[in-house]
Amino acid sequence: xxxxxxxxxxxxxxxxxxxxxxxxxxxxxxxxxxxxxxxxxxxxxxxxxxxxxxxxxxxxxxxxxxxxxxxxxxxxxxxxxxxxxxxxxxxxxxxxxxxxxxxxxxxxxxxxx
Length: 113
Hints:
Layout: E1 2-4, H1 19-34, E2 41-45, E3 52-56, E4 65-70, H2 73-81, E5 85-89, E6 92-96, E7 106-112
Parallel strand pairs: 1-3
Antiparallel strand pairs: 2-7, 3-6, 4-7, 5-6
């Protein structure tokens, strides 16, 4: 199973003709970051009856760190089993996990780097 994600908020342009508008945009994004809204999270449900799930996102690179927070009891059990690990590459991360029939192993993922 493959899941594709796209950043929810546009990046701030490096320059704009209207200097005041540019400063307002920088302030808006800075305020979002200060409130913890860093645009680096997503929700993923592991593929049922498969040993891996692929998440495609342009923000992922080989040096990306992925952190998973279980949102369901089956997701917590999967994480506790020690069988889940992440393999990031350019533009995607493969989540290796137990091949199980459960379809509710849902996680919040945070990507950094």
